[in-house]
Specification:
SBP_5; Dipeptide-binding Protein, domain 3; ABC transporter substrate-binding protein; Peptide/Ni-bd; six-stranded mixed β-sheet; eight-stranded mixed β-sheet; signal; alpha+beta
Amino acid sequence: MFYRARLQAAAALASLSLLAGCGLLSDSGSEADQKIVVGTTSEPSTLDPAAAWDNSWELMRNVFQTLVSFPTGSTSPEPDAAESCTFTDRTSTAYRCTIKQGLKFSNGDVLDAEAVKYSIDRILTIKVKGGPVGLLGSLDRVETVGDNKVVFHLNKPDATFPFVLATPAMSLVAPSDYPKDEVRTDGKVTGSGPYLLDTYVPGDRAEMVKNQNYKGFANRKNNAVTIRYFKGSAPMVDALQKNEIDATYRGLTAEEVVKLEDNKDKNSTLQLIETVGADIRFLVFNPEDPAAGNPAVRRAIAQLVDRDALVAKVYQGTAEPLYSMVPKGIAGHTTSFFDNFGDPDKEKARQILVKAGITEPVAMTFWFTTDRYGSSTAPEFDELKRQLETSGLFKITLKSAPWKTFQAGFTKGDYPVFGRGWFPDFPDPDNFIAPFVGKDTVTGMPYVKNEITQQLLPQSRQQSDRGAVSKQFERAQKILVDDVRLLPLWQGKLYVAAGEDIGGGERALDPQTVMQMWELYRKASW
């Protein structure tokens, strides 16, 4: 039998937490049974947090600690490796954390204030292009106070800084095993998280075992987790149906989700768990490219793209059209692209190009990655190509590459137009604007917009009440629409498919949509 468990809000997660405390989900089986295998199409691009601003966080959340994190049911950062954290001033420019006593890394090194400072400082020193250094724009310096206190001095008020510290990019690493000025590349991990990385085979699997010395918030309901990496969703689903894996996360196609929902295979005993996602997909235009750098070309594409058709044909209800970089469910969401361009219109697009002196079809190359966002990515770009070429105004060539090659290409500025996905670092509108503007961006290309970076973001970051920042972000989205350097396409939902004997799937996704593997367990009886 198939069934769907829905999470509509963080409050639902909190309710489940309370129910679990009363014993609803307490039947977690014997110690020997608690080995879980999870499949995904999202392989890490790096094992070093200083280089990670992508889905590498999936593994990192489970093997490293951060000072603060998001326990199940929480949408605000709470202490993890820290005993307590707080702003020490009214202007939100000094954030002090006291570190728990007795913490150690897996190599035996002490996790103290110096280790925290070292972990954050090396992100700023290494400064990986397209890496998490872009999250630390408000950090001026890190100060240690004795062995167990650290103060983050900010160069401007930033009420979102605790959210930044909660991201896996700010994972704490052992100084003796991580070079201060370069990325660690030996394929190993030295952390203090819920699990130890026992074995890592790139492109194949990551085997994690319970860290017996772990001291943090995670209540581990299994002994070990193996993450298996698949090149496509079809072999992953096949492995699930054959009981070779217990659950899947990231990579299910729309067809596979619909099949599970419709219960077409009457003999199956799988469950499908749906979460309201804040993940988005969008196109990035390279301003240095002769065609993509022309605002008229970008506006014409924005005028032609039919999001409704894209979602209906490729995603079959598992996504919805997105008309701003800030998705539904996040404060400050608007429909600014629709407000500006309206419905797809070939004649309006033609007029935009003619006014700019362009009368011949524009030849462009669109790039996408083959192994990061699931098997629906290729059909998505086929549909975009069809829409643009049907207008007679464009001639599109599609090219693709595995994520590591793709990432290297777009960070070097090699691609005229490319598709990206964004899973939130934290559930705040700031995180859907700030990473894409400034000198260091997640797209690898500078996008200097002084009104956003010097006025709107600083104003919003003075507000500790994050629900009161809509005005600034509405204006920021209007600026992005005027430029069309980024073209939002759709907002997705996230699905976990699992065997009927696996519990905890509805609790496993944190507000950053990162899988907390410790929540999964095998039920002793059904």
